[in-house]
Amino acid sequence: MLKKPTASVGFFFTGAAFMLFGVYGISRKYWKMEYVLKPTLIHGVLAAIIATLLLGACGKRDGAAKDGDVIKIGSVSPLTGPQAHLGKDNENGARLAVDEINAAGLVIGGKKMHIDLISEDDQADPKIATTVAQKLVDNGVVGVIGHLNSGATIPASTIYNNAGIPQISPSATAIAYTAQGYNTAFRVMTNDEQQGHVLGQYAVDKLGDKKIAIIDDRTAYGQGLADEFAKAAKAAGAEVVAREYTTDRSTDFMAILTAIKAKSPDLVFFGGMDPQAAPLTKQLKQLGINAQVLGGDGMQTPEYIKLAGADAEGEIASNPGLALDAMPGGKAFKDKFTARFGPIQNYAPYAYDAAYVLVDAMKRANSTDPAKYLPELRKTDYQGVTGHIRFDQKGDVTGGAVTLYQVKNGAWQPLETVHSKQ
Amino acid sequence: MDIFVQQIINGLVLGSVYALVALGYTMVYGILELINFAHGEVTMIGAMVSLTVISALVGAGVDLPGVVIVLFGLLAAILVCMGVGFTIERLAYRPLRNAPRLAPLITAIGVSIVLQNIAMLIWGRQYISFPPILPQGRHQILGAMITDVQIAILVISVLLMLGLTLLVKKSRLGRAMRATAQSPQIAGLMGVNANTVISLTFILGSALAAVAGVMVSAYYGLAHYYMGFLLGLKAFSAAVLGGIGNLTGAVLGGLLLGVIESLGAGYIGDLTGGVLGSNYQDVFAFFILILVLLFRPSGLLGERVGERA
Lengths: 422, 309
Hints:
Strand order of the largest sheet of chain A: 8-7-9-10-11-14-15
Distance between the termini of chain A: 42 Å
Radius of gyration of chain B: 20 Å
Oligomer: heterodimer
Shape of chain A: globular
CATH class of chain B: Mainly Alpha
Number of strands of chain B: 4
Structural class of chain A: alpha/beta
CATH superfamily of the largest domain in chain A: Response regulator
Strand content of chain A: 15-25%
CATH architecture of chain B: Orthogonal Bundle
CATH topology of the largest domain in chain A: Rossmann fold
Order of helices and strands of chain B: HHHHEEEHHHHEHHH
Largest sheet of chain A: 7 strands, mixed
């Protein structure tokens, strides 16, 4: 909420005026750039337009603040960069939930409330994640849905924790996220410990692969999942013949795959996201490596099949939770979502549930004050699209399942669902 | 042995793409002493345009061999990129021709961001996949695998590089480019229209970038509005490694960077007994770059200023 709208409008104007004068003066006096900023009518008109836009931007925010009954909820995911398709998907999931809640009418503390979803772009970058987290806190959000990547979620969670703002990540699976002892950190997806364990056992026991090569993208997610997988695979009696690394921006894997080829593995495990998994699979086939590709939830997307084409056939990946069609509200959610935004990429149902879980806690606490509804959030017992959501002491979702999928005839087909021991 | 040959092939294919893009950086730098950071984005636009055309043709069920369809895509990409290159120079760089050197440099970074976002608006955030219409043949050379696409990339790159060298060294336009590089004012006095030459340089560089973009998307099977960033960065490093401003240097730098990356990623683990892994591949490549620049600050072939173009 903007407490002093006039002050901020004034600030914008003074800043803009100083900038214009500064640029004008420096360029004319020191750089002898008379031809760059010769004052003409055009410049006057431009300045007027800019001023109007600034005023308009301020005016809009002031207007929203006047209602007084707005709940600001942040949504953070990479909206630009290589994972923008997944990031937008998360935002859309949260947006669908928020719009439904708004349309149904939300009353908290006897007042009619309107949720304002503020979407920010963290570019999947840990550094930018902290910047936008601070921005949201300064903006007065009372809850955050995000971030997408574990690598971005972990540093940002410190900022939300210091501000006492609850955070639910739809998709960060690294163990470290909820192991920091923050009472504000939650997630609605099974963590990598469970997923890596299931994958490791599946590779050795079900697929019977004993020589395993592991590649990860050196993000908190990719590396964490690969480490857990390696632990489980070794415990089940496999040998890790190669451990290679790439980045979450690479498209060329020929060099590391050639190095892996020399070790002739039965299975190549990839810890990372679909933009890397797909070209990696193609290049693996291109080099004539005869090995099963196995991956986690970052690879189990329609995008992976689209990009890898025929080379994706037969590859296996896991995803925490149930298959969308096996989710309690999966079918209905899929129809609603697809009608509005197009195909679901991956985590949208989780972002959707995260939004409902936040609001559900607010309703039970009958308050939007983070300090008041945070204890209620921990007591969550919510039947969502992705399953029955309850949190343990750390903020992890309990009783998570992991489902394994295989690409058959150009589509992910569920193989089996493994329920975790918890 | 076969692994070593395979790594060299990987490196050469990657390196020849770097080299093609690096040529664009180096040509512009040679004439304007401007680092055109938007060049990577021109490559991306080439890839996007060609994929749009190719997908449209495939979708319309045009009954032509895959190679011909890709050639149509390539042609469209070259034309659009030429236009983009010309427009960038005309709108963003020419007004700042006599400004302090930092101004056009920052403008170049701005143009790069603008192009990325325009591409994001037009083609969206999704990855675009390359339809599997090209021949997928694989051949054995000394125990290593090489695909038809890789062979095509190598051959086309070599032809283009030879063609460009001939153009710069033998043709009238090349002579005008070299003259403008040495001194735009004097070249002007000799009847060379510097503006036309600079426009043509941008157009040529952008055409090469378009070809590189199509090759990259055909090779990796995908295109994305963000793909120009890393490629541009690597190609720029290659141009600096070879000596920015020098055509032969850009080719040498590109090929070297490709091979170094490939060998680095492949062997660093075995050589250090597992202490350093392939997570150090970029460190390794840039370590070599720093080493070269320490001893030859103007790059491998950098001092031959007379031949730059």
